[in-house]
Amino acid sequence: MTKSHGLLHVLIWQAQEAQSAMKAAASAQKILFNDIAAWASTENRALSDVCSCASELTSLYTSAMTQLAYAFKALKKEMTLILEGERRCDAVQKKLHDAENKRIKLRREVSRITSKCMN
Q: What range does the domain containing 15 cover?
């Protein structure tokens, strides 16, 4: 694993954590304002109306947070695909390096045999 792969692993983990945090925050906020609205409805009408408006705004904000969480999920998926591509490139580069070393070794051997035959 190269240094860039390590960074990619960290980015994937951070995207996952951000997605989880967004979902948790959206859920907690929704529960909070539902509870506030329920409490306000028992207190008085004016307080209930204010809480209802705040609940609607929170609903919009929660929706935006949920969309952002899905964007983090998509980002994580894309970075995972990039990591897989990087791993495949590493494997191919290793095969190329091994083949190049083998070619050099065979070329030396051919050269050695050719010089032996000429003597």
A: 3-118
